[in-house]
Write a structure and sequence with these properties.
With 489 residues, the chain is an alpha/beta fold. The protein is built from eleven helices and 21 strands. It folds into two domains: 18-334, TIM Barrel (Alpha-Beta Barrel), CATH 3.20.20.80; 344-487, Immunoglobulin-like (Sandwich). Helix content is 25%, strand content 21%. The longest helix has 16 residues, at 71-86.
Length: 489
């Protein structure tokens, strides 16, 4: 069947010099225990190759935990040392969802201003520390429960190493999103209550518990609120590709993000925020990572003990999403949608239908996946191909060869676009025909013509599953696809 494309939005207004635009990626320090300087180098180079300028190193309180997490300080030092060599940037960030604790907490608070000030001052002294208006940029996840006075105390300790603080308050963001008609007032009220913050980091990059393809009105509300309050900024816009978690001891929920990685980057281009923060580089538990998945049961530097979350992370690589990001990062930085130079085709999908029977997962007590009905049973295709090619994408019965499933829906289109487009291919309506059936996405370019480039070796979609998994498998054409296409045109 022929499916209409969703075109990239080209409108946008330049609001500042292109050189000021920078893109960060949230880096969860708790997943860096085994990192060496070589691991940092590999990660930073991979990020740079995608156009990412730096990491926001998200620390958790080193004390007040069941384990001593002071090793984070050593990883921070290693990160700064390598970043200086790599011409990469580091911003200190804090997970302030940790609030009151009773064990190993002298003040009863998980964070204390003295410790945070030391980390921020350290960043100020480093050549790789990210600055905004010659001050250290500080991001937080949450922190409103600590109160405005806490941020005032923090800034008082930073008189000799000044910082700008841009927090993200999820409860405020949810209120702004839920009350769309009064979103400006909701955001303005929140900013006015926190006189000691300078900017805002909007982490509301995917709709919460609802289906929506655009949530940029939340960003716009905070942008206007900062301007109205006369705050220097920056306004930091969060961009996430996906959101899913399935832990038997915690939560099991998915958010609607089928088109998010495409739509959100177009929102970035149109809104031109001061900075962008990708959510995330390596938060495996939330399924929104774009880093390579660590080796299963590995012991080499960079390995992570994923525990239960490995059930929905191992085998689900997301690195192809960096291919998509690199195009839009250029568009954001140069305030112009560039013509496609490198031919790429990226696609993502879930590995079982949303009503599949699974033997594990489904959250505490097997209660099921929250929001399971919001997502589509489909494959989504991002096409960045400048050359004229006829594509056919369908569901096959093998990951090794061209083997169309009987009555499979087919997506056919001809590429030759100056900017990328997105298509959709539904799962077969009669899938699964049996409990052990597997199907594979199959991509054929210019079949039976002088170019016949195919890809079959994809992650399978299965009828049943060992663990309820709403994470995405993300695939792309092999590295030589661009060379082969260009050699024939």
């Amino acid at each position: 069947m022929k499916v209409a494309a969703t075109s990239a939005i080209l409108a946008g207004t330049a609001v500042r010099a292109a050189s000021a635009a920078q893109v960060l990626a949230d880096f969860k320090l708790t997943n860096a225990h085994s990192y060496t300087q070589d691991t940092w180098k590999t990660d930073m180079q991979a990020a740079k190759d995608s156009g990412i300028d730096g990491f926001a190193l998200v620390a958790v309180p080193p004390n007040c935990q069941s384990q001593d997490l002071n090793w984070q300080l050593d990883r921070i030092e290693d990160a700064f040392a390598v970043a200086a060599q790599q011409q990469f940037l580091i911003a200190p960030a804090f997970d302030m969802s940790y609030n009151t604790h009773s064990a190993n907490c002298p003040t009863g608070k998980a964070w204390n201003v003295t410790f945070m000030a030391q980390l921020i001052s350290n960043a100020y002294s480093k050549s790789a520390g990210l600055r905004w208006n010659d001050k250290t940029l500080v991001l937080t996840h949450e922190g409103d429960s600590y109160g405005d006075g806490y941020f005032g105390q923090l800034k008082a300790l930073l008189a000799n190493s000044p910082a700008v603080i841009a927090p993200s308050f999820s409860s405020v963001e949810n209120a702004v999103a839920t009350n769309k008609s009064s979103s400006d007032q909701q955001a303005a009220d929140a900013i006015s209550q926190f006189t000691n913050i300078d900017g805002y980091f909007n982490g509301y990059s995917l709709p919460h518990d609802t289906r929506a393809d655009n949530v940029s009105y939340v960003d716009a509300a905070f942008q206007r609120a900062l301007k109205k309050a006369g705050r220097p900024g920056p306004f930091v816009m969060g961009v996430a590709p996906w959101q899913f978690q399935d832990l038997t001891s915690d939560t099991a929920a998915v958010e609607y993000g089928d088109y998010a990685w495409f739509n959100r980057w177009n929102d970035v281009f149109n809104m031109q925020p001061d900075l962008v923060n990708i959510l995330t580089w390596n938060d495996y538990a939330s399924s929104n990572y774009i880093r390579d998945v660590p080796q299963e049961n590995g012991s080499k530097p960079g390995s992570v003990d994923l525990g239960e979350q490995g059930n929905y992370v191992y085998g689900m690589n997301h690195t192809a999403w960096r291919t998509v990001a690199s195009y839009y990062i250029d568009a954001y930085k140069y305030q112009s949608m560039p013509w496609i130079v490198h031919n790429n085709l990226v696609y993502w999908y879930r590995t079982h239908k949303k009503n599949a029977t699974c033997s594990g997962g489904m959250g505490p007590g097997g209660a099921g996946i929250k929001n399971w009905d919001l997502v589509e049973d489909a494959l989504f295709v991002w096409v960045g191909v400048r050359t004229t090619l006829d594509f056919e994408i369908f569901w096959g019965t093998s990951g090794q060869n061209n083997s169309p499933r009987k009555d499979t829906p087919k997506l056919t289109f001809t590429s030759n676009n100056t900017t990328p487009v997105v298509y959709k291919l539904p799962f077969p309506t009669d899938f699964p025909a049996s409990a052990d059936e597997k199907i594979y996405p199959q991509v054929v370019a210019n079949h039976d013509t002088r170019i016949a480039y195919s890809k079959y070796n994809n992650v399978a979609v299965t009828a049943e599953c060992k663990w309820e998994n709403f994470n995405a498998a993300v695939e792309e054409m092999p590295p030589d696809f661009d060379d082969v296409v260009k050699s024939h045109h």
